[in-house]
């Protein structure tokens, strides 16, 4: 049992659990869809393409059938936020707007923070400092002028937490020293560089500061843009990776945008921070950006839990188009409806909004969305001179290599007509050429698959993964325990049956723990029972509770479950008696042999009844 005595009263934990719907909490992190009695989504704890993460609203629990994580709302928050049980209770209470008891509020204010919490608090304090310098000090005026020139007012600055790090090597260092921040924490934060003599100096100097948030909206890093150009320093400088910041799985502005993303099922992926900010001010609040590097599979997986539709709107110049092409390759196997917006004249979103206004920008995002294939054809067309026959033919061949990957015949016909018009070639001849290209493509794909199979057979030394199949007794035991936890009458019936026990010792332990849990004060349900158990016992409880059951189960079926369990128990005793008879005979112990023979005969009579 998880011990929290002296920290959070059990009555308060129970209040938080009873007043919180796990679906509301999980939906902040996972896009859930109703399927039968449960809700399903992509598991937030491991990468997958087919949803195996389930939430049962009536029991207030979750479970992943692939990675076997499961529990109640507190366990979900503990795992996804990597925090302790007491911290999870307080976070859920805050989510549900449940006021803390006075003594608990005092404990919370004075409690020792974990290292990760200290780091997050440090970053939050530094963000407030940088914003204050930008807005309230003379030294911040050049940076404020720069942002105002880019049409960012104070509201936008506060909305995105923008700030300024002056061109001083010890401003932040001295600020944190006055707050008695330890040197060890400052080193771990990544906010400082070290000279050869060990002296710490501010990492960010003369930079406009963009705070980076985690998916819960906590500042975990910074990206600083040089205020004045320098040949010796990069234009943008990011915080180094720390225990709370790994850039591969962070999307800029995701925490603020995810509510709108979930409501609209759509996310707009931009290339830079200023594009996100400009789009936001133009009314597009569901915009996000990668961390100044190529898009990663971790970022896409984070996004897939909130969005169904992904619109990529990078810069319209050649590097931007190449970045779009790279992103499309990565997104290809993901469960997104993909679109691409190419702004006119090679402009980026920030430039386009300034030139044409918010309404025109929104019209571009809504009315000029290209499919990935249409984007690739448009990109290819820009690489050839159509006034030269050889280049027109080269374009046609390149376009056909793009179209052979399309499975829909309707799409094939649509894009073939576009290519024919673009290159001014006969459509019938183009379709004949396309048929030949498809045959060649399919031959190559078959050859690749054969080679992959051969390579896998030759190099794979790992044993095959076998599906675990429960036998009749195991199914009976799990179903019976599930029913007993939900039905007090059946539970008492099993307790009163002196010779009843589950054959699986782990299930028997769960049943005994359930009986102990029933002796505690308060309401008794599966979500509360999960907190009563040790962490290693919780996964089995979730598997039992998530096990599919018929809508109606008769008393006869329940008796069958009990009979199957008891029969398996007698079978096990019978095998043991047979071994004991054999051992006694080998040892020449006639009395023991007779004793076990009588046991054997009695067991056989019971099994035959």
UniProtKB/TrEMBL annotation:
Cofactor note: Binds 1 zinc ion per monomer.
Renumbered zinc finger spans (CHC2-type): 43-67
PROSITE patterns linked: TOPRIM
GO terms for cellular component: cytoplasm; DNA-directed RNA polymerase complex; primosome complex
EC number(s) from the headed UniProt entry: 2.7.7.101
One of the record's GO molecular function terms: DNA-directed RNA polymerase activity
Cofactor: Zn(2+)
Domain Toprim: residue ranges: 265-346
SMART domains: TOPRIM, ZnF_CHCC
Top-level taxon: Bacteria
Alphabetical GO biological process terms: DNA replication, synthesis of primer
A Pfam family matched in the record: Toprim_2
Catalytic activity: ssDNA + n NTP = ssDNA/pppN(pN)n-1 hybrid + (n-1) diphosphate
Keyword terms of this UniProt record: DNA replication, DNA-binding, DNA-directed RNA polymerase, Magnesium, Metal-binding, Nucleotidyltransferase, Primosome, Transcription, Transferase, Zinc, Zinc-finger
Enzyme superclass (EC): transferase
Signal peptide: none
Entry function: RNA polymerase that catalyzes the synthesis of short RNA molecules used as primers for DNA polymerase during DNA replication.
Family: Belongs to the DnaG primase family.
Subunit structure of this chain's protein: Monomer. Interacts with DnaB.
Entry comment, domain topic: Contains an N-terminal zinc-binding domain, a central core domain that contains the primase activity, and a C-terminal DnaB-binding domain.
Protein name: DNA primase
């Amino acid at each position: 049992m998880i011990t929290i005595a002296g920290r959070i009263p059990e009555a308060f934990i129970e209040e938080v659990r009873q007043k919180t719907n796990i679906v509301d909490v999980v939906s902040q992190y996972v896009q859930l869809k109703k399927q039968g009695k449960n809700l399903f989504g992509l598991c937030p704890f491991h990468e997958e393409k087919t949803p195996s993460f389930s939430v049962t609203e009536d029991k207030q629990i979750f479970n992943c059938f692939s990675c076997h994580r499961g529990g109640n709302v507190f366990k979900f928050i503990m795992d996804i936020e990597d925090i302790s049980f007491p911290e999870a209770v307080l976070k859920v209470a805050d989510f549900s707007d449940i006021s803390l008891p006075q003594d608990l509020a005092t404990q919370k204010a004075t409690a020792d923070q974990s290292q990760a919490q200290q780091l997050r608090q440090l970053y939050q304090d530094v963000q407030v400092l940088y914003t204050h310098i930008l807005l309230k000090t003379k030294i911040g005026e050049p940076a404020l002028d720069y942002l105002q020139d880019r049409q960012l007012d104070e509201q936008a600055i506060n909305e995105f937490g923008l700030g300024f790090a002056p061109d001083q090597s010890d401003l932040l260092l001295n600020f944190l020293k006055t707050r008695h921040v330890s040197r060890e924490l400052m080193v771990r934060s990544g906010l400082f560089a070290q000279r050869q003599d060990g002296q710490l100096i501010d990492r960010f100097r003369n930079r406009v500061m963009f705070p980076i948030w985690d998916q819960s909206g906590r500042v975990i890093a910074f990206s600083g843009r040089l205020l004045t150009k320098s040949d010796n320093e990069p234009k943008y400088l990011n915080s180094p990776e720390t225990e709370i910041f790994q850039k591969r799985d962070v999307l800029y502005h995701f925490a603020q945008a995810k509510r709108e993303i979930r409501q609209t099922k759509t996310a707009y992926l931009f290339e830079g921070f200023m594009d996100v900010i400009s789009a936001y001010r133009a009314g597009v609040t569901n915009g996000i950006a990668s961390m100044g590097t190529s898009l990663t599979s971790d970022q896409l997986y984070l996004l897939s839990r909130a969005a169904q539709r992904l619109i990529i709107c990078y810069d319209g110049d050649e590097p931007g188009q190449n970045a779009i092409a790279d992103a499309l390759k990565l997104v290809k196997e993901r469960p997104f409806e993909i679109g691409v917006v190419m702004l006119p004249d090679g402009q980026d979103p920030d430039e386009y909004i300034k030139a044409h206004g918010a309404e025109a920008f929104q019209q571009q995002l809504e009315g000029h969305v290209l499919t990935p294939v249409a984007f690739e054809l448009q990109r290819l067309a820009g690489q050839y001179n159509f006034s030269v026959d050889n280049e027109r033919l080269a374009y046609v061949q390149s376009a056909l290599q793009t179209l052979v990957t399309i499975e829909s015949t309707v799409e094939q016909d649509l894009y073939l007509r576009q290519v024919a018009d673009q290159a001014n070639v006969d459509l019938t001849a183009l379709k004949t050429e396309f048929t030949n290209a498809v045959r060649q493509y399919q031959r190559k794909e078959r050859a690749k698959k054969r080679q992959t199979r051969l390579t896998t057979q030759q190099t794979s030394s790992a044993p095959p993964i076998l599906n675990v199949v429960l036998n009749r007794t195991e199914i009976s035991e799990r179903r019976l325990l599930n029913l007993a936890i939900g039905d007090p009458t059946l539970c008492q019936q099993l307790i009163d049956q002196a010779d009843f026990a589950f054959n699986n010792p782990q299930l028997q332990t769960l049943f005994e723990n359930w009986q102990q849990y029933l002796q505690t004060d308060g309401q008794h349900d599966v979500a509360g029972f999960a907190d009563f158990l040790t962490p290693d016992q919780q996964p089995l409880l979730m598997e039992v509770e998530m096990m599919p059951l018929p809508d109606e189960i008769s008393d006869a079926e329940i008796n069958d479950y009990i009979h199957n369990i008891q029969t398996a128990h007698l079978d096990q005793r019978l095998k043991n008696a047979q071994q004991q008879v054999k051992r006694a005979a080998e040892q020449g112990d006639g009395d023991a042999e007779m004793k076990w023979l009588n046991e054997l005969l009695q067991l056989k009579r019971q099994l035959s009844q």
